[in-house]
Amino acid sequence: MAKTEVLDLGGSLVAQETMDIDFLKKIRTFLIDWLEEDDERKLIIIIGGGHPARVFQNAYREVTGSEANHDEQDWIGIMATRLNAQLVHALFSKYCFDDVVYDPTVIKTMTGRVLVGAGWKPGWSTDYDAVLLAEAFGAERVLNLSNISKVYTADPRKDPNAQPLDAISWTDYRAMCGDEWTPGMNAPFDPVASKKAHEIGLNVIVADGRDLDNLGKILDGGDFTGTVISK
Prior knowledge:
Blueprint lengths: L3 E6 L1 H4 L6 H16 L5 E6 L2 H15 L5 H22 L22 E4 L8 H11 L4 E6 L4 E2 L11 E2 L1 E3 H8 L13 H10 L2 E6 L3 H9 L6 E4 L1
Parallel strand pairs: 1-2, 1-4, 2-3, 4-8, 7-9
Antiparallel strand pairs: 5-6, 8-9
């Protein structure tokens, strides 16, 4: 059976205030090299909304004030994920023959070696879509890659005593992040996705997606910097 890795990319890696062209070139080359090393390897890449999502969601909230609702904010974020995903789809077009996946419950096969997914519907982030695709394709884990290197015991920007974690159980992680999703929520892995991952026994590795040397260690089974969330 082909080895399928699921990369859950934070939108900040793809779409910042300005596009980080150098990073996009590097990660494209890195992942293509990884695929070419073994023709059984496959990738599922799910993209978050990043900076554009936050800008447009903030604009909506500022204009509507108390009239703002969660579903509308989520739809705005979802559309940002879809634009980012279309870019990534184009970057890997040599390997990606399927359209960008919006509904992760309807696709069970991939015709190429790369499958790209984006936001589906309100109520969760693309983390949840990554978990559903991992389940559908029999992946053992999701690599949650963003601009943080580990999960902390608290938000290190607010709590100077917050400590980084090498590993944490789903029970303990969910006790920290809660069970409710709010649009634009700042959590390493969203609560809805965490509940589903816990239920199906899926492992999630949280790591800094900008560190490609470290990503290589994760993919190759070496010692890496990150946090493993598991049952």
